[in-house]
Amino acid sequence: MRRAVKALYAVLVTALLAAPSPAATLPASARGADPAPAGPASSGPASSDAAPADRAPSLPPAPSPTAPPVPRMPGVRGLEIGVPAYVWANDPMLAGLTATGPAASVVVLNPGNGDAPFDAAWRARADVLRGGTTATGEKTKVLGYVHTDHGNRDAAAVRASVDNYLKAPDGRLHVDGIFFDVVSRDCGPANATRDHYAELRRYVEDALHAVDPAASGLVVNNPGTAIADCYLEPGRRTADVFVTYEDTYAAYTGGGWLGGNVFDPLNGYRAGSELDPGGTAFWHLVHDVPDADAMRTILRTAFDRGAGYAYATSAVMPNPWNTGPAWEFRSQTEHAATLG
Prior knowledge:
Layout: H1 2-16, E1 80-85, H2 92-98, E2 106-109, H3 120-130, E3 141-147, H4 155-166, E4 177-181, H5 192-211, E5 218-221, E6 227-228, E7 241-248, H6 249-253, E8 262-264, E9 268-270, E10 282-287, H7 292-304, E11 309-312, H8 329-336
Parallel strand pairs: 1-2, 1-11, 2-3, 3-4, 4-5, 5-7, 6-8, 7-10, 10-11
Antiparallel strand pairs: 8-9
Helix pairs in contact: 4-5, 7-8
């Protein structure tokens, strides 16, 4: 009976998402970035066509789906699309994400590794992205990028980067949380590294709630590989979501998958589902994906490996996150909605 209900739900989702979404035309200035998965991403130099800090650019509203999306059935695990967008606010990649319906579930914005001002142009872009509606009827969550150098970056500097997003001049929230990059995957002596990231999570939550006590924040840690299970220990958990894979299609479908989302020194790698009863704790990022068929294979594989979030792109190193894939974003958000 349960399989029949889920099958009917998948048919309904596919039918409702078949209608085309409206397109948006935005000014664009292409630019490059040069991060590697093991290091902080670069958003590139300041652009001369960026909007002045005291005046937001004119952006179209996020598209509304032509048919109301159907939320996933309670208790049915699914897959969401989360996109790292390491580009400037007026880049074509973000224009494409803004125009996509159903929208991505999460978009990471990256102004200068989190250290360039999150000014009016960025806040306007974040606001319109947050207006997007996902296949499950939720609003897109926007995260601000902050690098941590495997826990070695000065804590005061990390907090200042967090403040760049969460303490806007207008006193409003324009993002839903923080994406901490270059995160250590190890607990550290006496769990000191883990506790450092747990404290950063508390700082983010306190800053969010100081602006909006009702805000439901999202904190992501990106080690780019399986993380020690101490990071998900109840009461000391360092993030809501962990990026436990960031590498190529060839590695993901070959020997690069280590066998799980979490590990411990004695027993090795495991899926970590017992630490993630809701199926939302893990995020897989895969680049160098050859075509749209391979993209769909990646999403299915990510779901089977316990990921609640995934993203596949045809873009390649040195920075696969500064341009969109060869296929439309919509083909990915639609396909993810059928997994569950």
